[in-house]
Design brief:
Order of helices and strands: EEEEEEEEEEEEEEEEEEEEEEEE
Distance between the termini: 39 Å
Oligomer: single chain
Number of helices: 0
Strand content: over 45%
């Protein structure tokens, strides 16, 4: 937690705040949320932050933060999640969020790998989200998402690059609905330029995949 560390059910309200040029050796360059910590963020910008996992923000173990009107710009991770990293039963909620020019080895904009051990089966929700010109070295230029439950509505994934596979979105999981999703002008060195999916159940409606290109 280079800028801020929220630990053990810490749920602050963060508004009209900028996290700029913070760094952590391991997790969460801007903010690290751990152990049931679920802050609410509005009108917040993360810019030029750096960590191994979660250049902008990292969520680890039962963290369900809410991001509204938030910008992740030019953050980077040496491993996973240039902008946002979530792992182990953590389900972020994103509304009106922009990921631009973030970089990582896996998941240039977003790295979301989680599963539900709860009977309630919580969902991650992405609404009015833009992933634009993010870069991954190995997979998921825009995002790497492997999750049990996901709702995506009005999401644009454009001009992202992977020097490995899945320039736009690498997705795996189940119980997923994607509506009004545009995946365009993404590039990858191998595999799908736009969307690479391995899912038990995925419903894709009213969506556009356009102008994506793998080099091979």
């Amino acid at each position: 937690g280079g800028g801020m560390y929220n630990y053990s059910r810490s749920n602050p309200i963060i508004a009209n705040t900028t996290f700029d040029t913070n760094s952590a050796t391991y997790t969460g360059g801007g903010i690290y949320n751990y152990d049931s910590s679920s802050p609410s963020l509005s009108e917040v910008t993360f810019i030029n932050n750096h960590a191994r996992d979660g250049g902008g923000v990292a969520n680890y173990y039962l963290c369900n933060p809410v991001f509204q009107n938030v910008v992740f710009q030019s953050n980077w991770a040496t491993s996973k999640g240039g902008g946002l990293y979530s792992y182990l039963d953590s389900y972020p909620q994103l509304l009106n969020v922009v990921f631009s020019a973030n970089q990582a080895e896996v998941g240039g904009g977003i790295y979301l790998l989680t599963y539900s051990t709860s009977l309630e089966k919580p969902f991650s929700v992405l609404t009015n989200v833009s992933l634009h010109k993010n870069t991954a070295e190995t997979s998921g230029g825009g995002a790497y998402i492997s999750i049990t439950n996901l709702l995506m509505t009005n999401v644009t994934i454009s001009e992202n690059t992977s020097y490995g596979s899945a320039g736009g979105l690498l997705f795996g999981g189940n119980e997923t609905t994607m509506t009004n999703v545009t995946i365009k002008d993404n590039t990858a060195r191998i595999g799908a330029g736009g969307l690479s999916a391995s899912s038990d159940f995925m419903k894709l409606t009213n969506s556009i995949l356009w102008g994506n290109s793998p080099e091979q």
